[in-house]
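ugh ok fine here u go
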Amino acid sequence: MADLVLASRNRKKLLELEALLAPLGYRLRLVSEFSDVEPDESAPTFVENALIKARHAARVSGLPAIADDSGLEVAALGGAPGVHSARYSGVHGDDAANNAKLKRSAWLERLFQRHHRARSSSSTSRRFTHTTRQILRAVLNMASATH
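structure:
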């Protein structure tokens, strides 16, 4: 059996992928067997972040690596949170906080869309709506950071 390193620390993901790859003659090992260092996922796309993780895992293990990156892209939020899904609320991996912020953001966006439809389509009103949206998002972000 050939070894591959999975660029993840998620044991559930390991089990899911092992079930697919074991019949093909591959044994998966988690990157955490080789390093406690997590690479900085600073790229703007899921594909680029997966490449960062795979390259790191291959470098620390000396094995061929596989990786993925995923998240939520909400159309009503212009594709947000996207690559920031896991740390959307500011705390990496806090699903409850991330979901709460996502719900607040989606609610806020729906409110703005209703407001925008109700106003005239002049550039002044669009600029006002955009500025108001930025201010309210900043307020929500500050409120989230303090709780």
